[in-house]
Amino acid sequence: MTGRAQRLRRWAAWVVWAIAVAVASLTGAPRIAWAAGEPTEAAEKQAGHVVVIPRLGPLLLVGDDAKSATHDYVDRLVRRAVFAPANTRTLREWSRAVVDKAPEAPTLEALRATGRPVVGIQLNALEDLNGDASWMEKRASVATAVVQAGGVPLFLPPAPSKAQIRGAVAVIDHLILMGGADVSPALQPGVTPDPRFSTNLKIDAPEQDLIKQALDAGLGIHAICRGSQLLQVTFGGKLIQDIPTSGLTDLPHGAGQTQVEGDDAALQHPIRFTKDSAIGQALGRKKEVRALHNHHQAVHPDHVAPGFAVVATARDGIPEAIEGFDGRVIGVQVHPEAASRGSALRKAFFGVTLMERARRHMATRGRPTVPTLAVGTPRALTHAIHATVGAGTQKPTRAIWRAPVPPVRPVPAPRPTVH
After folding, report:
1. In the predicted model, what is the mean pLDDT of residues 356-370?
2. Which pairs count as long-range contacts for 371-378, CB under 8 Å and 24+ apart, including other chains?
3. What residue ranges do the domains of the chain occupy?
4. What pTM value is reported for the model?
5. What kind of fold does domain 50-187+195-240+275-285+324-364 have according to CATH?
6. pLDDT tens digits for range 156-183
């Protein structure tokens, strides 16, 4: 579709939306209670397509085909200035690399045919699209944990459009919110921006819409660190804005809070779950586990979001986990994906609570819940999908998690605080 045709299509969609709003206001037709829609995209019926983020994994976009979906997504990021304008060239180069050089991605049908729940993993940073090797390795660890637990990871793009949110909710069986930068103060009444920490409202607001639509669709949510904080803010709770300066504790909870820079050992300390919490029950008799902390913010113990409860704390009393929606939503401040494969916390978070909820939702869609592919790593899963269920025309020589695409360096900017 040409650029002129696309503009005419969007203009026509605006007209249709305006007429619909006018009719609704005159007839008293019910309006959607949560978040106003995005008329240009809401009116467009677009199919989901899987592309590959080099060195990370499969990404779900929407469009007429994979190529146009990728270019349209980048055009939208640039048009809305989701990232700094100086990064436009980086985004364009990333788009070309994904379309022209990345291996063929598995289709949605192939992912569903594995007999495994499809777990959406929401991205939230420019670096998630083409960061350096160490950044991508940390992000990919969540996908690895999902595969080892028995699921199929499918990444969801930063700053998703309404159409992308609808497409994701229609495909996935569970949602993971990852760690990242601080939640924007614009979403937190009375909070003053702190220049030491980067935020991005254009990332946070669409992610809030995704949370709400996922819950409306009956999906469960597991949130890690920043994701837990975003849940808290979305449903009316408050955060401890900066643990080191709060006066609440001297226990280090994140990078820069230890005596020695990079001292991960000092950030490994225990948290205790309540016995009636979902993770507490999954842990069995052992309610206290050691975990990696890397956050300077946390759920405020005196201002927990309505409908949520604190179900785990560190030994200093700082909240480390919350649950809500009858256990359908779980948020942890720590990083279970960084724990060893056999750790109790990793098994309870990914292998028990997440997969039980995901399989339950998968069954409501009439999909078989008996895995057809018994593999333990993203690489093995990728090859098995291509070889067994016909993901593409040929089996790739390398796993899509390790696509041989030259990295495109983003313009230097303040590094987001990963927590």
Report:
1. 85
2. 371/114, 371/115, 371/116, 371/150, 372/113, 372/114, 372/115, 373/114, 373/115, 373/116, 375/147, 376/147, 376/148, 377/144, 377/147, 377/148, 378/57, 378/140, 378/143, 378/144, 378/147, 378/153
3. 50-187+195-240+275-285+324-364
4. 0.80
5. Rossmann fold (3.40.50)
6. 999 999 999 999 999 999 999 999 999 9
